[in-house]
Amino acid sequence: LMRDSCERRDQIQIGQDPSAFPFSILPTTMESLKSAKQPGEQDGDDSKRARFRPIAQPPLRGKGSEGTREETDTLLHTLIDIDVTENELSHNDFNAHNNINQSSRPAHTTDKGIPEPMSLKASPTGARLIHQADPDGGSHTSRNPQAGATLSKRKGFKRLFSSSLGSVANALGPIKQVAETFVECIDTYQVAGKAKEEYDELVARLETLLDDLERHLGEGCEQSMTASMNRLCKSIEEELEAILVRDKSGKSKLKGSRYIAADEEINAILTCYRRVEGYLERLSLNANLSIWRIAHDHATGYQSDRMFSLIDRLPSVLAARFNSAEGEALKRRECTPGTRIREIAQVLGWARNRGEGELYWLNGMAGTGKTTIAYSVCTGLESAHMLGASFFCSRLRAECRNVNRIIPSIAYQLARFSRPFHHALCNAIEKEPDAHGGALQMQFDALIKDPTLQVQHALPDELIVVIDALDECENKESTRRMLQVLLNESTNLPIKFILSSRPEPEIRDQMTERVKSRLVLHELDKGQVQGDIERYLREGLAQISPSDAQIAALVERAGILFIYAATAVRYIGYDNFHRNPTSRLRTILSGSKDRINTHITETDQLYTTIIGAALEDEGLEEDDRVDIRQVLHTVICVREPVTVGTLSELLQIHDVDRVRAALRPLWSVLHVVGEVELVTTLHASFADFMFDAARSNAYHCDANRYNYELAKHCFNRIQRNQPQFNVCGLESSYLPDNMVPNIEDRIANEIPLDLFYACRYWADHVEAAKCTLALVSELEDFLSKRLLLWMEIMNLKKETRAGMECMRLINRWCNVSLCV
């Protein structure tokens, strides 16, 4: 037997998709094992004949790897469950069973578009043969589920599962609830009439699937649940609950056992059971792949570190996940309880309905609450184990506005969501290690499309990916191409995408033509939106108990823009409502309304009120006003959030407290986060306002002129650095950086944040300054005297790709500015 197994193992190669595994190997081995006596078994002792249940497993051996027969023995005992049981079927039961027609039942398609699994004879997993003892000493292979149904009627389902639920709960906890609900369904309903035979067959197959899961997961196998497996369990529970709660006579739960005779109700119940069977098959594939990994690691000593290292190669942006720590710093949050309920329900309803397309567009003008709604949607999807991945774009972080980081990040999160996808993605990365650096179509095909199609039979029906604020990506052409890839490929995948953005031209033109499912926030009923804004204002201003008239006035000024309400609450409640909040409320409400009463002018007026209060305070000196204006313009022009210390160094304001003092009156529109005091704008609409001279008037920020100032600050900061060579004091140039002791500490100490910002973004500010010839002398000095220092710093910070992009920007700027 061992020799036969050793010969067969060479046919198996690691790295295959589980669905491509040559299942014929295992049944052949089972035939050799089924008649073998177990330890302590005597001839003719039929009551202790082993019952074998081979389950579908991925391949076990690495290509070209060597192993001992002891390892093979370990693998076989892991793969083959040897369960010594009583002889539960009588000789007459087997005679009756042998006369049963062996033909498989035709496949069906459910109303959700899920193919009904084939009969046990041709199960998609290739793993449903059940070997049971023959009283005469032979062995019969049960291929027809009616034998299982006969057994079920004799034992009763409660008795069948009573001994297994505890062990299943230890391996896959949610399966316990599934099994209990299944028992309740069987006890509640019994089908009569012509559908009885099909009903009994379905019940028997479901019994077998649950029994297999218990048998192979409940005995000493430590099993972790992925989000994909949790979602499958949830889908099963929903189907079984639908059986228990039939829409008949007021949707009341049925009590006690009853026979069902109505064809319509019978068909509905059978359809639910067929979907349950499909979900259980997928759950089995997920679980079996995990067991294969455990068995393979145990037998060969090979750990899964290699596979995780492959996934970790992807340039995933953890900060772009909806609930990341960086997202909290950027003020991402859920909707206030009781608000945007209809909008969130509409998006979640689309996500659960497979018949409404593969792409949903949540769009609205600036300040309508898109990101907050998208966050709430992600929270709902995650709690239902439906969220495969999320990517929240943001112009405030370089990695979150880079279109080329979206697909690798989604692939990384999907690998965490589903173990089969993780396996397929590892294979894809091994075949194409640099796929993440290719064109967007190449990235999508290699990292998402191909792995997903390989394991789609193991994924839940509801798998959602959310991409928020796509309009905040920095390259409009890349954004257009990204949309094109998603629109072209989403129809062929078992994944649904939710996108949110402003209706910018490069997005609107494609989405309007090809996406039917959408929610346009600025076109919603004004009264409905204002009701939510009123609830938000009452909660946010509860400490000062504003009158109904004051709340109504604020609601009217907000129109449909949540950002107005959010900014007003921050301004009035500044310093935890300790800075005369009642007076601040009156200041907002007394603002002039002479201009045309549009939503945008109301928000502009609010921004104007806040900046005016900061700059026109009678207690300020002129130097204080200069500091406020300089700090404000720097914050809205920098390419990523910077700390208070970085602002101090870049602007050469040597007293950090002066920077803090300049920021303090601007906290209603700027956000200072955490102990490091990271400074960001509260909302993208504020920067839009400041850059538009027609809207901000005297407070306008000239982007060209101020980027020129920032470019000079960057050059000056690099020039001031000492030393100008070997900044980390490395002892030898022959030793690779990764072999230098304490290299990370040296880099952190010798390359402060402000120096790194100057090295990373000087070219961006030069390019944004457009054709400013006054920068030529600074650029010439940098390229002739500071270039090697800059290259050294970028290399130590592992930003060589960003360095190449800097050179491309400068080359383009020179062609435009100097070749005239």
TrEMBL record:
Composition bias of kind Basic and acidic residues appears in 1-11
Q: What's the domain of life for this entry?
A: Eukaryota
Which residue spans adopt a coiled-coil conformation according to this UniProt entry? 192-219
Q: Which CDD domains match?
A: MLKL_NTD
Q: Which UniProt keywords apply?
A: Coiled coil, Repeat
Which segments constitute the NACHT domain?
358-503
Region Disordered, as annotated, extends over 1-70, 93-152
Q: Which PROSITE patterns match?
A: NACHT
Q: Carries keyword Transcription?
A: no
Bias type Polar residues, positions = 93-107, 139-149
Q: Per the record's keyword annotation, is Protein biosynthesis included, yes or no?
A: no
The record's section on InterPro entries has: MLKL-like_MCAfunc, NACHT_NTPase, NPHP3-like_N, P-loop_NTPase
Would you indicate the residue range of the signal peptide?
Answer: none
Name used for this protein in its record: NACHT domain-containing protein
